[in-house]
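Researcher: Here's the sequence for the chain we discussed earlier.
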Amino acid sequence: MNDRFLPLTRRGLRSFQSGIGLMALCMLVEGIRLYVTALSFNAGLSLRWLQPVVASMGGVASGLMLVGVLFMTACPAGAGVAPWGIGILALSALASLWPVVVYAADLSFGALGGPIGNTGTGILAIEVALFAGMLAALCRWIALVERRDAVSVVSVLRAAKGAIGADQTALWEALAGRCNRLFQGATTFLIVLLIVALLMSPLNPLPALQPMRQPLLALLGGFAVLLWGIVLLLRVVGAVWGVDQACRRSARLAAGEERDWGDVAAERFGAAGIVAGTLALGGLVANHWAEQVLAPGWVDRHMKELVGDRPLGGRSAAVGQAAPAMTMKTIDGETVRLKDLAGKVVVLNFWATWCPPCVAEIPDLARLAKEVNQEGGVVIGISDEDVDTIRSFVASRDMPYALVSGSDWPAPFESIRAIPVTYFLDGEGTIREELVGGSSYEVFRRAFDAAKAPPSPLADPAAAAGVGP
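Model: Thanks. This is the structure I predict for it:
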């Protein structure tokens, strides 16, 4: 095999190798950032500058990988490489263009997680499996050609006594086996992802193993899946490097023997490969444009699906309303009525054991509870989980405030769609503040002190409405 043999395929190998190596680095950096944020929200904020950097690197990595696959589809048809590559390009095009459709058609948040949205890790696993199959097909074909040349007594491509040809055949067969094992590993990884998705869905046949009910196991499991995914990508890098090195070795040997493999069909791009490659690369560009131009407005319009009717950047409609007459039962069996707490500042924290931001703010909420108990205040944690789940969670934590299990609360608490969310009620039972998302002790303290203070005089309704005399 000399330098004139499969130049496009070899160029594609190098491009893909660079792209997937960069992608593995992006996944590692983003994974570290996410877990730092889960452990410390403030520390995560200090790393938010990494997001655009990782996004840009990821775009470059995806482009390199797609170009690499496109070039490899030019391999002679007898190799059987092109169908695998076209599958990768078509899947990539679909994954890139689906969010563009969601943004442009103004579909809901649920649509973004539709047939292919929000499944990036799964799609990557499928693409890795397809690429492993692509490499295996290439290696098997080259091994077949090497074997043919090694046993041919008339071929001018044969090395002396077939020694080099036999050695090359063994090398390519070993690489084919390595790529087959990579294919099996990627397929197993994809099956695990499907099982995890099933456990997290309403169709989960084993509710006790639901990750949302086992937050620590879910965190450890997610980290294990992340590491597995990175190892899988690094194995792809190793496989591509091995195939590329084998190509270089064959080229050196062939050059010394004046082998030209002239009987092997020349590389050429097929129409299907060109169309799939164009769609994939165009979809990548369109996706980047949509994320910058269409996504911000789309998020603003549909965010209320997650946080209820609270105006983005504005004051909650619940603030200023009188809290409903709620009767709650704590996990210890005690009955708590809001009307019996008149004269006290009441803090209602809606949370769940499976919610990382909820768990992260517990120490700050516990500190607040210890202080306000001396000031006539009351902190109540409310979860829609069963009593046993809450008790098991609390057993290993310091949560010195009442904990309630229940759901279907009256307005305005019936519209809660995002947790944690914390309400501060003054002594007259009026909602004075609503905090959506995880908060710190300082924020809790300021909201509590504000609820203790007399309400500010309201502006004249007529003046506020712009009604003149």
